[in-house]
Amino acid sequence: MRSIGRVSRGLFRGPRARKVERLAGRLHDAWRAGRRLPGGGYEPQIRTTADRAWVRRHGADRVDIANTGYRDLPADWQQENRESAIVAVRLVTEGRRRGADLSGEEFMESASHAVHEAWLVRNGRRASPEQRLPYRLLPEAEKEKDRLVVRLALELWS
Question: Which pLDDT band, with edges at 50, 70 and 90, does 158 fall under?
Fold first, then answer.
């Protein structure tokens, strides 16, 4: 895991890479928002990490991912947000390059479909049966998760 953190930090230095990291952080914040507690903070979500460098720095292999900002998460818990961000930034970049109507429903649904398909490749084995459905058959609440990734990516260019 330590090498993943080093490699990923080395890769994320250009303008596109900075967009990926910003989007990954926003995706984490959007997920946390649904866990916000009335008195402040977030409903805890304790997870184990395999990031040895993070474990060494914190003296534990458990992290409350809900009450930890994206930049302070272990590398393995940053990874899923980063992977979604890479896909979305690529889709928006390509859409801009070919002159697509990025504000239109056609782009939103096409890009959201691609975000879902990429997520399935990474997470299909652990996904619920409902999440394994093709994008067109997903319940609206599941489609909205993919649309949010695209929407937040589009905001990086506005």
Answer: confident
